[in-house]
Amino acid sequence: MTSSPIGIFDSGFGGLSIYNSIIKLLPHESTIYFGDHAYLPYGEKTKAQIRKRAKKLINFFISKHVKLIVVACNTATIAGIDQYRKWYPDIPIIGVVPVVKTAAEVSKRHAFAILSTMFTSRSVYQKQLIHKFASTSHVYNLGCSNLLSFVEKGILHSSMIMKELRSILTPKIIQRVDCIVLGCTHYPFLRDSIRAIVGKDMQLLDSGGAVARHVTRILLHNNIASHGPAGHEFYSTDPENKSNVASKLIGKKIIVQYAHI
User: Which residue segments constitute the domains of the chain, with CATH numbers given?
Assistant: First the structure.
């Protein structure tokens, strides 16, 4: 069991930002990554549709004998993390949510923005996070639908990205906040482009480090940490070759296998 892999899934390749954080902190752990590209984007799906896809992906991981599952997608987490745990009580399942609490703690102006998908920004879950952890802060809840598609094409720098970011992160907002939460796992790949808009002094927060530390705690608590050597597998539900884009995003050559589920 200790040498079994960690399963990580997302609607696409955004979850590779979480994968990067996990393998950086836990270099001896093996992983299986799954991008559900045939059903991308989740943000345009209903809660029931997202849960149905998550169930299929979790079943795939179980067939691969993973020891822990990371839902490396804010939208999929918000759509049903509690339900996934009820369906599969015998395996630890960790979700990803915008780091609202952290932002509220580090913002000196008590004003920050959350950049996320439309599904996440409109969700009751996120509104509850804001009410619970940032009730004394001014929070700009910014939903956007186009940034994700650039990352999925491996485009991290372009005039179109900058135009999209400027339409969302307006000067009025930038002047009022000192912290921006990257509330979609795709967005850390656009960090340089975002930085070019908001300046060097703006704090940009994502969930990668927090998720990796939580994975570590679960592994140690359950005594299922591995000591290597590590292996990594990558899958997608899109039959089109995704290896080049994934390789570009994580900075090393990998092969993404097709899986029809």
Answer: 6-96+208-258 (3.40.50.1860), 100-205 (3.40.50.1860)
Q: Please tell me which residue in 73, 100, 169, 194 is annotated as part of the active site.
A: 73
Q: Which of 57, 113, 184, 198 is catalytic?
A: 184
Distance of CA 236 to the CA centre of its chain: 16
Instruction: Read off the pTM.
Output: 0.94
Which of 53, 57, 42, 176 shows the shortest CA–CA distance to 107?
176
Q: Catalytic: 179?
A: no
- pLDDT given for residue 1 in this prediction: 67
Q: Residue 112: CB partners within 8 Å, gap ≥ 6?
A: 103, 104, 134, 137, 138, 139, 140, 177, 178, 179, 180, 181
Is residue 73 annotated as a catalytic residue, yes or no?
A: yes
CA distance 97 to 117: 12
